[in-house]
Automatic annotation (TrEMBL):
Pfam families xrefs: 2OG-FeII_Oxy, DIOX_N
Keywords associated with the record: Iron, Metal-binding, Oxidoreductase
Domain of life per record: Eukaryota
GO MF term list: dioxygenase activity; metal ion binding
PANTHER family reported in the protein's UniProt record: OS01G0536400 PROTEIN, OXIDOREDUCTASE, 2OG-FE II OXYGENASE FAMILY PROTEIN
Family note: Belongs to the iron/ascorbate-dependent oxidoreductase family.
Matches recorded under InterPro entries: DIOX_N, IPNS-like_FE2OG_OXY, IPNS-like_sf, Oxoglu/Fe-dep_dioxygenase_dom
Name this protein carries in UniProt: Fe2OG dioxygenase domain-containing protein
Span of domain Fe2OG dioxygenase: 211-314
């Protein structure tokens, strides 16, 4: 890769050419690249952590169980590792498979068909692009771009479905049906998580208004040098919780307490959806629930991976909408661990950090 001093002349041109092609990462694979282009080369520090040496079958919650049992299992998983999978969740298997297949089909259609939808900007209710990784992480030069080895369809909800018609109908229809089904499931999960905190089924939604406002549909093409790229950086999610559907290729990894700097593969389970806790819920639960660190690694030189992440964010998201540890969870024995904050304030701080660790320090209360 070119020296940092040469960035403006070399790397910026490579980044410009990549976006101008409107072909995405998939286009690089179609062109027959055998080495990773400079904008995608991850700094050595990013890939220095030991590779995953073990697999995790995430705690499973069968949502057809009696409610008391489901609540207990959800609470235990949220407290122990911040991640669990749900089965018998009520979302038709065909709905999940149709959504994953639609994302794959969109990305694997001929270049001339998909390039019309490509956008350099990441703004808008419906976009198809390669979203850059913030240039603020340790080991990354401040002015150097870094692109993940993935192409993404981003859908933002809240302004009506008519604002999302930039994508082809075959793809959009499947994703909208998936969103409708997952919204129902998300409300159920929010109730279980709230009840497991001991504050009643409605209190979590009442405090922050849980809404499925952001969907990211990721396509990770095969890579000629998987060890030199990142699928996603190390991060926690900033929301309340995220529901993830993935195919069987694998690549999602988590860093769990007691494992040091070792990563653990999250094994794909047919028919299950993954739920991981985000930073907002960590704050609201007063550190009772864990916000799990995770990343995606590209593993295959031959096979593409597809996943869909639906983020359940606070609907109360204005500059005057404060949230903090729920009052019922603050006692003399367990005082508030965080001050009150707003969703925009949290997002600004995460942007400032580039999602680097730890993302909640600014809001912690000094208990000493």
């Amino acid at each position: 890769m070119a020296a940092v001093d040469d960035f403006d002349d070399v790397d910026a041109l490579a980044l410009f050419d990549f976006h101008e092609s409107r072909a995405g990462v998939r286009g690089l694979v179609e062109s027959g690249v055998t080495t990773v282009p400079p904008p995608f080369l991850a700094p050595a520090a990013w890939n220095s952590s030991p590779a995953a040496t073990e697999a995790l079958v995430a705690p499973t919650v069968d949502l057809s169980l009696p409610r008391s049992q489901a609540v207990a299992l959800v609470g235990a998983a949220a407290r122990s590792c911040g991640l669990f999978q749900v089965t018998n969740h009520g979302v038709p298997p065909g709905t999940v498979e149709s959504a994953l297949s639609a994302v794959r089909a969109f990305n694997e259609q001929p270049l001339a068909s998909r390039s019309a939808y490509y956008s350099v900007s990441t703004a808008g209710p419906a976009i198809y692009t390669t979203v850059p990784i913030p240039a603020r992480n340790a080991g990354q030069p401040a002015n150097a771009p870094l692109l993940p080895w993935r192409d993404t369809i981003v859908l933002r909800f809240g302004h009506g479905e008519s604002h999302l018609d930039h994508l082809p109908a075959a793809c959009l229809d499947a994703l909208l049906e998936y969103h409708r089904s997952l919204t129902v499931l998300g409300k159920m999960i929010a109730g279980l998580l709230s009840e497991a905190l001991g504050v009643g089924t409605e209190q979590l939604d009442r405090a922050v208004q849980v809404e499925a406002t952001l969907m990211q549909c990721h396509y990770y093409p095969p890579c000629p040098q998987p060890e030199r790229v990142v699928g996603s950086r190390v991060h926690t999610d900033g929301d309340l919780f995220t529901v993830v559907a993935q195919d069987g290729v694998g690549g999602l990894q988590v860093r769990l307490d007691g494992h040091g700097d070792t990563w653990v593969d999250v094994v794909p389970v047919t028919g299950a959806l993954i739920v991981n806790i985000g930073d907002v819920l960590k704050v609201v639960s007063n550190d009772d629930y864990k916000s799990v660190e995770h990343r995606v690694v590209v593993k295959s030189t031959q096979e593409a991976r597809v996943s869909i992440a639906l983020f359940f964010n606070p609907g109360k998201c204005g500059d005057s909408d404060f949230f903090g540890p729920l009052a019922e969870l603050v006692t003399q024995q367990r005082p508030a661990r965080y001050r009150s904050l707003t969703w925009p304030e949290l997002l600004r701080y995460r942007k400032q950090l580039g999602h680097a660790r730890p993302s909640l320090d600014k809001f912690k209360v000094n208990l000493n």
